Amino acid sequence: MNGRCPLPARASFRDLLRDLFGRPVTVRPGPAQELDAKRMAYLAAYRFDDGSPAAVAVTDQTLSVAAAAAIAMMPPKETFEQVEAEGGLDEELVEFLHEVVNITAKLLNSPTTAHVVLRQLDPVPGEVFADIAEVALNPSIRHDWQVGVEGYGEGSITFLG
């Protein structure tokens, strides 16, 4: 294992989302997000080019919907109602969320570490590779943030490295 990559700075993450969504975004420290079998979330697994784990990002369902809808410029109220009725993100919304977490990978790269890419985006609870679970369960660094997207609400993201 190469070690882990640096996690993004809060301001850099905010600016990235603001530029992606074309609307104001706030990112502030939040409470530790704990995974719960009764609450849907999405886990983005980032790996170095050699396949070893680099970092993990977990978005709660609220932020997952907000980010997917905002990047696609979908109407927030109707999108949240659709997700509530279906019990989770449909394939199209997952693709939009994938785009957001994929672009976020650029914040995990630095000139002094190996190249990092998004390798998978999975719903949790669900199957997670053992090496990715190890990063999530025993991080050497952790950021818990509340992210507000103007017009779409506020949700949580946790970066683990």
Question: Helix and strand layout, with pairings?
Answer:
Elements lengths: L9 H12 L3 E5 L11 E8 L4 E8 H12 L3 H11 L4 H14 L11 E9 L5 H8 L4 E8 L3 E8 L1
Helix pairs in contact: 2-3, 2-4
CATH superfamily membership, which one?
CheC-like
**Strands across the major sheet, in which order?**
1-5-6-3-2-4
CATH architecture: 3-Layer(aba) Sandwich
* Mean of residue pLDDT values: 93
- Percent of residues in helices comes to 25-40%
Net shape: globular
One letter per element, helices H and strands E, the order comes to HEEEHHHEHEE
Beta-strand residue fraction = 25-35%
At the fold tier of CATH, the topology name is Chemotaxis protein chec
The number of distinct helices, counting runs of at least 4 residues, comes to 5
Report Rg.
15 Å
**Structural class assignment:** alpha+beta
Structural domain count: 1
For the secondary structure, the number of strands is 6
